[in-house]
Amino acid sequence: MKAAHWTVAVLMLVISGSVQLPAQEAQHPLIPAIQRAKAALKNIDANIADYSCTLVKRERVDGKLIGPEYMFTKVRHKPFSVYMFFVGPQSLKGQEALYVAGANDGKMVAHAGGVGIFLPTLNLNPKGSLAMRGNRYPITEIGIRTLCVRLIEIAENDAKFGECTVNWFKDAKVDGRLCTCIQVVHPVRRKNFSFNVARVYIDDERNIPIRYEAYDWPERTGDRPVLIEEYTYTNIKLNQRFTDADFDKNNADYNFKRK
Q1: Does residue 17 form part of some domain?
Q2: What is the pLDDT of residue 120?
Q3: How far, in Å, CA of 23 to CA of 167, rounded?
Q4: For residue 20, is it within any domain?
Q5: Cβ–Cβ < 8 Å for 150, 12
Q6: Half-sphere exposure (CA, 13 Å, Cβ side) for 142?
Q7: pTM to 2 decimals?
Q8: Contact of 72 with 234, CB cutoff 8 Å
């Protein structure tokens, strides 16, 4: 599969520092970014019922950088529902996962993929060790809305502290779409912060975040920050009018093995 071409412009939603800001000081530089993220979340809740996309993921798990992985994905917001089909790499191609909030006793349905792999369909605790193998987050936390919520939570926490640099960049591109990038840097490692640098790319036309990347502090002075996680939503098609059939393991288009 052909990877998307990205213009590397930066939107770092990061703050460094452990000293709380006095109330009389000027507005924290993260406040406009928080406002932008909240506006995006409001837009999602008001105007986006579901969507399909290709999610491109890279994550550092147990110290090892995994990916990129490519997943064709369907997401419905109410009830929260996810279907995923792994397109690549070859070792995962054909793997499927499905989750619907409030159904199947809270379990996800999944089967492995890859050349020469023939494993049965399993019902798994989405936060259990088997489902979480090779992943930083469970399937229950996938999607642009969850990304928006998470960005707000992180930024609101970081806005309690100083040592933060925030820059905005117009005309960045992700998957050929014009985006605004907000760049945030924590210059010094602090226990209050989860990353050194973070970048968020917000689609200007759709007003949704479509790429996020976060970096840890480098081990040595002069080295580049170390990638922790990176998620890019490409080929997004909004409001596809998905039905329960799109999130049914018995869907004839899916390959979950019947018992």
Answers
A1: no
A2: 85
A3: 23
A4: no
A5: no
A6: 34
A7: 0.86
A8: no
In a domain, 9, yes or no: no
Structure tokens at 177: 């779409």
Q: Which amino acid is at 155?
A: A
Take residue 98 and report the two structure tokens written for it. 């499905």
Sign of the CA dihedral 60, 61, 64, 69?
negative
Element (H, E) at 73: strand 64-76
Domain ranges, residue 228: 31-238
Where would I find the H helices in the chain?
31-47, 129-132, 144-158
In the prediction, which pLDDT does 221 show?
85
> Which pLDDT value is given to residue 118?
58
How many domains, in total, are found in the chain? Answer: 1
Residue 22 included in any domain = no
CATH number of 85's domain: 2.50.20.10
Q: What is the DSSP letter of 81?
A: E
CA distance 200 to 181: 6
Mean pLDDT per 10-residue interval, the chain, length 259 residues = 38 36 65 96 98 98 95 98 96 94 96 69 95 95 96 94 93 96 93 95 97 94 93 98 97 82
Per-residue pLDDT, 6? 36
